[in-house]
Design a protein that fits this description.
The protein is mostly helical. The chain is built from 6 helices and 2 strands. It is 81% helix and 2% strand. Strands 1-2 form a two-stranded antiparallel ribbon. Helix 1 runs antiparallel to helix 4 and helix 2 runs antiparallel to helix 4.
């Protein structure tokens, strides 16, 4: 079962990679054509013809920029999708395993989630909420306090992970 699940996940990743690759590379010809048209116009020609566009050679810097844009056009959305896929997999797959193989471990998962919620509310209580109003952003005091609570919780979790790593290394060295 686990072998097939891994193959399914790898297959989904490959399909996403190919789909986003086709999507991203489809923008390359249009970007190159626009750059060639601009280069012909900069040379002083009033009428842009395909023959003129074939004669104009783009500078290497511009060609590299067009290629970089085409790659970024598909790698950035692909990375968002893959991170989302990884997050969903990291949550759903252990739950499926716990439900099918070890239902008692669901209690541990519930306790962990409750602990995270408690830590968040503690951090939220320490956060300061101040209304923010700029030309670009308008945020209420409650929204500011929520973001502050999330940031404080992030700092706390980083500290807990760091202390846990040090404690784990020290305790292993004495065993």
């Amino acid at each position: 079962m686990q072998k097939y699940l891994s193959l399914i996940i790898y297959g989904i990743v490959v399909i996403l990679f190919v789909a986003f690759g086709i999507y991203g590379c489809s923008g390359y010809p249009a970007q190159k054509k626009a750059a060639l048209k601009q280069a012909v116009e900069e040379k002083g020609y009033t009428e842009v013809t395909p023959e003129l566009m074939e004669k104009v050679k783009l500078p290497t810097k511009v060609e590299d920029q067009i290629t970089g844009n085409a790659v970024a056009d598909w790698f950035i959305p692909l990375s968002y999708v893959l991170v989302g896929f990884a997050m969903i997999s990291a949550i759903v797959l252990p739950l499926i395993y716990a439900i099918t193989q070890d239902p008692k471990s669901l209690v541990k998962i519930a306790v962990s989630l409750v602990a995270l919620v408690v830590v968040f509310f503690i951090c939220y209580a320490f956060a300061e909420g101040e209304a923010v109003k700029t030309p670009d952003v308008e945020m209420s005091a409650e929204g500011s306090k929520y973001i502050g609570g999330v940031l404080i919780m992030t700092y706390v979790m980083i500290a807990v992970a760091f202390i846990g790593a040090i404690f784990g290394e020290v305790s292993r060295s004495f065993k």
